[in-house]
Amino acid sequence: MTSGNPKRASNTLFSPFRFEKNPRACRIVCTIGPSSQSSTILEKMLLSGMNVARLNFSHGNQKSHGEIAHEIRKTAQRLMKPIAILQDLQGHKVRVGNVQHPPSICLNEGQEILLGHGETVSNKRIGIDYQDISHSVTPGQHVFLDDGSIELEVLSTQGDDLHCQVNLGGELHSRKGVIFPDSHLSFPLLNEKDEKDAHFGVSLNVDMVAMSFVRSATEIIEMRLRLAAWGKKDSFIVAKIEDRKGIDNLDEILHVADAVLIARGDLGVTLPREKVPGIQKTIIQKANTFGVPVITATQMLESMIYHDKPTRAEVNDVYSAVIGGSDAVMLSGETASGRYPLHAVREMDRICREAEKELRNFKGEIPVRGRQDMHDKMAASAVNLARNTKARCILAFSLSGATLKALSAARSNVPVYGIVVEEQVLRQLLLHWGHSLITMPHEEKLEDLIGPALRQLQEQGIVRTNDRIVVMASEAEPGAKETYLFKLYLLK
Ligand SMILES: Nc1ncnc2c1ncn2[C@@H]1O[C@H](COP(=O)(O)OP(=O)(O)O)[C@@H](O)[C@H]1O
Ligand SMILES: C=C(OP(=O)(O)O)C(=O)O
Questions:
Q1: Hey, which of 29, 41, 56, 95 would you mutate to test ligand 1's pocket, going by the most ligand atoms within 8 Å of its Cβ?
Q2: Which domains does the chain have, with CATH numbers?
Q3: How many whole angstroms separate alpha carbon 294 and alpha carbon 50?
Q4: How far apart are CA 30 and CA 86, in angstroms?
Q5: What pLDDT, in 10s, does the model give residues 447-467?
Q6: If you measure from the C-alpha of residue 338 to the centroid of ligand 1, how many angstroms do you get, rounded to a whole number?
Q7: Among 29, 54, 58, 59, which residue has the most ligand 1 atoms within 8 Å of its CB, making it the best to mutate?
Q8: In this protein, which residues make up the domain named Pyruvate kinase barrel (predicted)?
Q9: Residue 298 annotated to the active site
Q10: Helix (H) or strand (E) holding 63
Q11: What values do phi and psi take at 428, rounded to 5?
């Protein structure tokens, strides 16, 4: 998306974007796949509230993802709506190959089958993308396929293959995940597929990269270095927390990641399912404390893969995830391969908005959150000032995005309208709770931007005569390392 070199007319704001009149604070991430990759559906999903499009590189190939990314950018540009592209790398996750006769094979309870390195899945042998599996797994151990919906038991090893029996049957589709909960598999720091895909992602100029099964901060640092070497200096890395190692090292991961994703699908297989809600709560609380955006993911509206309405339990799950502190909620199969991708986005949007009403009722003082640095202190003060003066909204200017990130961590319950210069900065804020964002060209003096921004808020009917507005920014002033600025406007 580009601003198309807009002409500057006096008193007008030259931005390719418009503020949202009734912005939703919680972000919606949608996985794009066969059900949603056409420009018609993408357009409707964007208009229905999708903020981030997730391309899962465990499926499809570089060519197909490149085409989808292009279609997303084209659609966003046509609609003048910002959208971020999140590239999800396969990471340290074993996957089955492609089903020989699509769409799936049926595995029946009691059936015996071989499992070993290979690219094809048939009724006799399941190929997986891990070599030497027979050295890591012993008879009696279990194998879970497709987030645990299918369970195998290892009977013996046969050469390099495992001879298994199906304990829990089901339909197995191409590229589904494989978990060996009792075994220690070895993986390099970054695998070859991830490196190739991430390099390709740089050429697509994706906005964010998600790393699967993150175990340590080192992996993230290493990936950031590679991305920088390939030309992506301002990378945004999402750490997917999927197993015990990710949970144990959460603090160090939160120090270096730009966001975390609670991968409940794999968490519920690598650990007992009943522990997932408690783990979700802990990850959200920690991420909120660090001021790092957190995405709650997987099976949120799962039944909508086949139905046009969710179950009451699913509605409750999304609502609770928002109330609990998620910055974003994610749709997976619902939008990638389900029958009702649009219904799912609209449903998600409605539930988030309803939950936010409850959050807006919070009457207490907003505490300083996040890393508690100067930006966080100023953000909490701005929200409290806006609350105490009954301001209609906060208008925040940010070059690097830091002011807006802090306002997001503060969980402002006064609407925040944000102005940044770079579109990339804007798109990378689309996983952060809470703002409606537009870009404006850089001006030497902030004063030159405030007037047009206020006018746009007025023209769009977001603010009216006699409304109070808190303006917030940080700037460099002569003689001061950093100056933080608050202004309270009473509109004429
Ligand atoms: N690019 C794609 N091409 C084909 N199918 C896809 C694609 N992306 C996602 N899907 C389908 O949507 C399902 C749900 O998406 P996701 O949660 O990302 O995958 P998974 O559960 O396999 O990790 C996938 O299992 C797959 O069947
Ligand atoms: C989001 C998840 O990861 P993926 O879709 O890559 O398997 C998950 O396991 O919940």
A1: 56
A2: 27-92+189-359 (3.20.20.60), 94-179 (2.40.33.10), 374-412+415-490 (3.40.1380.20)
A3: 16
A4: 10
A5: 888 999 999 999 999 999 999
A6: 10
A7: 59
A8: 24-345
A9: yes
A10: helix 62-79
A11: -75, -10
